[in-house]
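Hey forum,

I'm writing up a methods section and want to include a predicted complex as supplementary material. The small molecule is magnesium ion. I've pasted the protein sequence and the SMILES. Can someone with a working setup run it? I'll credit the forum in the acknowledgements.
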Amino acid sequence: MRLAPALARLMLVATALACSPASRQAPATAPTPALGASYPTELRWVRTSAEYRALVLQTYRAAGSHLADASRGLPQGRWAVILDLDETMIDNSGYQKRIGAAHQRYSDSSWARWVVESTAPAMPGAVEFTRQVHALGGLVAIVTNHAESLCVVTRKHLVTVGIDADLVLCQPPGGNDKNPRFRQVQSGTAMTGVPPLQVVEWIGDNIQDFPTLTQGARNDPAVLAEFGIRYFVLPNPMYGSWEKNPDQ
Ligand SMILES: [Mg+2]
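Reply by user p_vandermeer:
Happy to help. Structure tokens for the complex are below, copy them as they are.
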């Protein structure tokens, strides 16, 4: 039915008034508050932003899209991907939030309690990526600096979040350098019954999750050229070896 022009104009004015900011009614309930401004910006970004989640998924998809080419021609069970654990496969931002709320800094004791609680979720894309590795005939090797004393609970936690790891190498006493453990995976000395493995990709959130790399990689174009090809890095603005870099 066609409205008379005068009536139609009246309805348009009424509609515009109803949608104007001044006419909006206050919501019946207050909106959900943002993660408190007292929390560090980087923690809020990790826990709330679409961009962080998109970046993590983007990284895992890129790593996954290179897998078939990287492993082509390699015998089943003779190659692997090495991944870091924290902020790579497991999201521990809840721990950062907890210590932030308590105005505490990281401590080995509060960290150990967090790990034992085993409530941290898998990172977006991590479970799917490990399935992709297995479907192509590769092994998933996790090299983490969780202490050896936490390794049993760490392995159980991985199972509960759906991460099927073939190797989990925790930190031996005094050995936070991951390079010896990378070499163990490659030489077949990481675990009885596991042969030498050709490592086709490394994934981590810290530059030291990649063989022999340090913060000096920032100024090394040859090393950085490996990223997106064999090395895939996830963002971690909350903590890392970068914290000790001198200001510029
Ligand atoms: Mg990490």
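Some notes you might quote in the supplement: The mean pLDDT is 89. The radius of gyration is 24 Å.
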